[in-house]
Amino acid sequence: MPHIEIIFKQLQTINTDLIKAKQELKNFENAMQKIRNEIDKIIDKIDSELLETEDELVPQKRRRYARYDRSVSINRKIEALEVCDSIIKQIKTRFTFTGHLIAAALFMKEDFIEYQKYFPDQLLSDTVNAYQFIEKIVLKQNCKYFTKEKSCKPFLCYH
Question: Which of these, 10, 13, 17, lies nearest to 99 by C-alpha position?
């Protein structure tokens, strides 16, 4: 499914923030819901194409035995709806926690230079709320130390 590849690509970009991630997830869910709502049309189109193919390929004498079974179509619809429901449910359960995006934003190496002048206290608070086992004061001190320590500067790519 191309939609799954698209959502993973969008969520794994370095500039993904919490709001963008939630919007992309909502867009994906809406796209899946649209596909789910069109399942009847999709299956009916497949069935009509199968019947046309059957009429062309099956000799006249064998047609009454080889007639397409309508229960197969019903089963196909049920299975397609289950797949769509399963994908929507998995997306909702796997991506409900987006706190790691907040924490990742706190540790962007490009921003460490700015931490010497201005430290993002709101981002720090959001990170601590997402990961309640983290001590706010210790994390802030470590981030500030990391920017000042000369041995860490090669990792931050600035001199």
Answer: 17
Alpha carbon 8 to chain centroid, angstroms: 5
Rounded CA separation 43/135 (Å)? 55
- Rounded to 10 degrees, what is the CA torsion of 95, 98, 100, 102? 160
Whether residue 62 has pLDDT greater than 90: no
Half-sphere exposure of 11 (CA within 13 A, CB side): 23
Residues 104 and 64 in one domain: no
Q: In degrees, to the nearest 5, what angle opens at C-alpha 18 toward C-alphas 14 and 20?
A: 75
Write the pLDDT tens digit of every residue in 3-60.
Answer: 667 777 766 665 666 777 778 888 888 988 999 999 989 888 888 887 777 666 655 5
Domain boundary among 72, 94, 116: 94
Per residue in 72-111, pLDDT tens?
Answer: 778 888 999 999 999 888 888 877 766 767 777 777 766 6
Please tell me whether residues 12 and 89 are part of one structural domain. yes
What secondary structure letter does DSSP report for 17?
-
Domain containing 110 equals: 99-156
Q: What type of residue sits at position 14?
A: I
Give the N- to C-terminal CA distance of the chain in Å, as an integer. Answer: 45
